[in-house]
Design brief:
Layout: H1 6-9, E1 13-15, E2 23-25, E3 38-39, E4 51-52, E5 60-61, E6 75-76, H2 87-111, H3 119-123, H4 126-160
């Protein structure tokens, strides 16, 4: 009984996701990085999507990115029927929930001194409590706020050295 090999009959063109210049007929591995080649999708005529800054309508780009003036994420000008999720929204939602999970015990520890009788002082020394608060607050401020810090930095740089539009 002969087995049917899909590689012998597959005449589609395959390419490497990391090296689009690598193309071959049939599946295989990329000779540069070893990743599995993926079939090249037949390019269907797409509607041209332009990306604009919500705050600066004069900023129009042909691909997503950040506004050179304020650093905000560029939004698509056209709305498609199958609207895909925003990666920026997913990232910020994840940052919010993880930061909130770290902030709840931080607030509880910070407010413990206002509980009558101060029961936490008998369990944990003040120095250890300060270190716990530092450990809980650092990721919230640094990691949770990182997108805001980067956009603020871009805004400061643009304010100091305006870019030509």
């Amino acid at each position: 009984m002969a087995t049917h090999s899909s590689t012998a009959t597959d005449t589609r063109t395959y390419t490497c996701p990391m090296h689009p210049e690598v193309r071959q007929i049939g599946p295989g591995n990329c000779p540069k990085c070893g990743m599995a080649l993926e079939p090249v999708e037949a390019e269907q005529p797409k509607e041209k999507v332009e990306y604009v800054c919500p705050m600066h309508a004069q900023i129009v780009r042909d691909r997503p990115g950040n506004c050179p003036i304020c650093g905000m994420a560029l939004e698509p000008r056209t709305v498609t029927a199958g609207e895909e999720g925003s990666p920026e929204l997913a990232d910020m939602t994840r940052r919010f929930w993880i930061s909130a999970a770290l902030t709840i015990p931080l607030v509880a520890l910070s407010m413990a001194e206002y509980i009558p009788g101060r029961p936490l002082d008998r369990l944990i020394s003040r120095q250890v409590l300060v270190w716990i608060q530092l450990i809980l607050s650092t990721p919230v401020i640094v990691w949770g706020g990182w997108p805001f810090f980067t956009r603020a930095w871009v805004s400061v740089i643009v304010w100091i050295v305006p870019s030509p539009l």
